[in-house]
Each structure stands twice: as structure tokens, then as C-alpha cells.
Amino acid sequence: MSTDAASRKIPIFGNWRRAYLAVLAAFVLEVALLCAFTRVFS
Amino acid sequence: MNWLDYSVLLATLLAIPLYGLWKLRAGANLGQYLRGDASIRWLTIGLSVLATQAGPITFLSLPGQAYESGLGFVQNYFGQPLALLVVCAVFLPIFQRLKVFTAYEYLGQRFDRKTRLLGAGLFLIQRGLAAGITLYAPAIILSALLGWRLDLTIGLTGAAVIGYTVLGGAKVVSFTQQYQMGVIFLGMAAAFALAVWRLPADLSFPQALAVAGKMGKLQAVDFSFDPSRRYTIWSGVLGGFFLALSYFGADQSQVGRYLAGGSLEESRFGLLFNAAVKVPMQFFILLLGATVFLFYQFEKPPLLFNTPALHQAEARGASASLTALETDYDAAFAEKKASVRALAAVLGSGDAASIETAAARARGLDARVQEIRAQARRALVAAGANPKSKDSDFVFLTFVLQQLPHGLVGLLVAVIFSAAMSATAATLSALGSTTAVDFYRPVLRPGADDAHTLRAAKCFTAAWGCAAIGVALGANLVENLIEAGNILGSIFYGPILGLFVTAFFFRRVGGHAVFIAALAVQAGVLALFFTTNIGYLWFNFLGCVAVPLLATVLQASLQRPIAENPDDA
């Protein structure tokens, strides 16, 4: 994806790069929570 | 099920498609019929993508999977958010820029007509069979437990889906899917709440979870490198990534869903919504299964959940051996229940040694119960009452039918049918579109105008629906419903994804080389599938990597430039 497209203004996140990073961070958080869940209950 | 359940079931199943057809009753042109239009917003796209993937097998088999093996299956979805980011960044902008109806049109523009037809053809074979499994899976379980006729269940579900998909096209499919997904969320949340509520009153939910954890059912993440472990974070991220990339990047049933809005922004938000909610959603469904497992630690479940097969075996002369097993089972369950109670009591003590001793005893007695159930399954097979699906596939629906109040039972059965209808509708829409756009107009009827192609797309959608019903009626002994679709997809997805990866990233490779490479790799994957025990997720990776590599080598040996005669259809 070109830099122009990645930095295009979008609602909520500002640009697509930030949106992708936010979703990636959410995924990492989800896996971390599942790891914590496993640790607590196993 | 009583009259209230049937009323809820019929009202739910009929109201959504009829409302969709009424709401979108204005006639659609070819573009609106095949793709939808700009009125479709990101949330509709997101729910539609979610509904297309989460077929009936997800809601029938996944809780049973957790009941039997715990939460580890959730790791299979870890590659999906990463794959969706790649689809958003690489695949989607290209499809949107070229304004294609199907993903395979792009292969025609990038390579040539035969490569486009190869990609579309592999998709049609794989999805045509998968549509049959989507109809067959819920029908086999529901007909067994509710005493319905299998052929009628398949036929009526298929006919309803064909009806609204042919009449309304992609726009109605997306519109109805969001409401069907709403019913699914509502039904599963209610089932979860009831499952928690039905646990023993003296046991809080966290205490109950601690018991399930000690019995080995709550290990969601496994960092082991042991290749014998079926679900680990590594196989989930790597294998799941390629499976999801193939599915979302190269399968028209999904490409059609996220191209529905016509706007890059709406499509991207729809996919990012999926990337964020998929793992929590699958975890929640698995946790529901673990909760049902907990419930059945205190309430005796049947010897086998597939009770119709059990009764069939008794009628065929296995009654004496099954009665003996039932006696053993009752005693083993009573002992296990006492040990689970003892484990729950000792958990609050903080005495690690006592807890581990109690947990080991409960696990040992659970293994004894499972061994008796395995003996019962073998007795079934020996009596010729071979069950057509894994016993775990019957766990969730048995719980629903026996433990939930009337009305909610109808809603949960509606959840299963809604999932089957929404996934099948998206598939039929994609099969009809691909046949009309990639085969009919360019090959069979060049120069056909839009009105003619629209009529052809409707006919092909109906024909694929009838074919799916035929496959479902002929499907037999698909023992592992939850994996049948993934296995089928993995056999064909790798080479199809390989075509797209070559198109995007190997600019010097032309149509001849990639066509031969994809054919050879597909033959190789089929050979590996029939002759080895390689885990099916690896076929996605192998196919995806092998096609561009082989195509590059072939291109060098053919010494041809990039195809100069791209498909003009």
C-alpha cells in the first residue's frame, strides 16, 4: 500500500496506519488476556 | 420442542429473509445484484463477513470441541487478524481499484484468461462441495435429535436459501446476514447465561472455572513446540494465517462480502471489525462449551450424546453389552461427581498439594468415564449403528434440548438454521456470480449484455443451490464436521492463494508459467493429502509458497515475457 493511501484521513483513527496498529494492538492484548486466563485457571 | 419453539423457529427463519426482500424490493441492476451498492455500510459488511465464516458447524460443533478437548482450538484463529490486515492493505485496494465483480477477474487482467478460469474453477469445485457440507452438517444433527426427516430438513433449508438469494442477490444476502448474526449473538448469549445459571448454586462461576481448569479444560494458549500437540500458538498463527489469507483473499464467498459496499473505507472498516472480534467470539463459544462440560460434571449426561444411534444399537442386539456399560458408567460418574465436589471444596484452601491430589483424582475418574464412553461407541459400531458424526457434535444441542426452557430451545435451533442459511446464501451468491462473470460471459456468451448476464447469474445461483442440496443429500460419514470444511478448503486454497501472491509480488511471471505451476501444485497437494498424514493447515502454506516458486522457475525456463494478451472480458 502506498504511503499516500496509508496516511489518508479516516474517521476515529486518523489514518489507516493507525487503524492497522490499533487492530494489531487489540489482537496482542487479546492473546495476552488468553495467556493470563490460561495461567490463572490451569 | 413444543408449539412455542416451533413458532419462534419459524418466525425467526421466515421473518428475516422476507423483511430483507421487502426492504430491498426495488429491482437491482447487474452490479447491485452481484456486488451490492454504496448504501451498505461497514457494520453490515463486518457482520456479513462474520456470518459467512461462522456457519452452523461453528455453533454446533465448537462447544462440543471445548467439552471434549478444552479451549485450545481458539489458537486456530490467531492467524486471522494478521491475515485480515494483509487483505486490507494489499488485496482490497487492488480489487476496489479495478472494480471487479469477482477476485478471479483480477487474475484475468494480470495474467490471462486460462489462469482466471483455473482460479475460478478451483473455487467452484471447493465451494460447491463446501456448500453441501454447510447444509448437511446441521441437518444430520437436528434430524437425529428431533426425529426430523434428513432429506426434508436439507431440502427445505436449501430451498429457502435459494429463494431469497436468487431473488435478492448480494445486497439482500448482506442485509439478511446482519439480522441473522443478531439472532445468533442473542441465542448464544442466552445459552451461556442459562448454562452458568444451571451450575450448582453453592459454586460461584469463578470457582466453577477453577474446577474446569484443574480438569484440563481451560488451557487456551499452548507455547509448546511439541509437533504431536494438535493446537499450539505456533500452528495457529502460522497455519491459521495462510488459511485465513486464502479464505479472505481468494475465496469469492468472502471477497464478494467485503466488496459489497463499493467503498474502500467501508470495506476496510468491515474487515478490521472482524479482525478485532473474531478471536473473542470464538473464545466465548468455546467457553460456553467448557461451561456445558462443568454442568455435566454435576448432572449425569447420557452415556452417548447421540442417543438415536444408541437406541438403534440396542435394537440391533447390543442391548446387553450397552446395559452393562451403562451400569459401569453410572457408578463411574457418581464417583467422579464426588471427586469433583471434593476438588471444588479443597480449591479455596490454598493447599497446593491437596488441590493437586484432588485434581489428579478427578482427572483420573474423568478418564475412566471417557473410556466407558469410548467402549460404548465401539459397541455402536460393532452393532452396525455407526454414528454419522462425532459424539461431541451432539453435546451442545442435547444440552439445549434437555436443559433450556421452551421458547429458548426454538431460538437456539433458529441460531443453527440462521447460521446455515447465512453461510449458504453467501456461498450460492458467490458461486452464481463467479459462474456468470468468469465463465458464462467471457467464454460461453461473449458480448452478452448486463440484463442477460443478470438473468444468467440468477439461473446459475439456483443451479448451484440445487447442486448443494444434491451434495448434502449424498454426503455420508463426514465424521468430523468441524474440520471437514477446513480440510476441503485447505486442499484447494493454497494453489489459489499462490496465484494471487504471484500476481501481486512476482511481476515478471506470466500466465503460462503460473498456470502450469498452479496445476502442478494442486496435483501435488492432492497427492500429499491422499498419501501422507501432514496436518491440513500446512497445505495452505505449501500451496501458497510452491506456486510462485515453481512459476518463477518455469518462467525462467520458458523465457517468455509477461503475458501480452490479458483477458479483455
Short description:
The complex is a heterodimer of chains A (42) and B (569). In chain A, 71% of the residues lie in helices and 10% in strands. Chain A is mainly alpha-helical and 42 residues long.
Total DSSP E strands of chain A: 2
Sheet of most strands of chain A: 2 strands, antiparallel
Q: How many whole angstroms does the radius of gyration of chain A measure?
A: 15 Å
Low confidence ranges of chain A: none
Number of helices of chain B: 20
- The level of helicity of chain B is over 70%
Rg of chain B, alpha carbons? 25 Å
Which chain pair has the greatest contact?
A-B, 20 and 29 residues
Average of pLDDT of chain B: 88
Low-confidence stretches of chain B: none
Shape of chain B: globular
- In sequence order, what are the helices and strands of chain B, one letter per element? HHHHHHHHHHHHHHHHHHHH
Distance between the termini of chain A: 42 Å
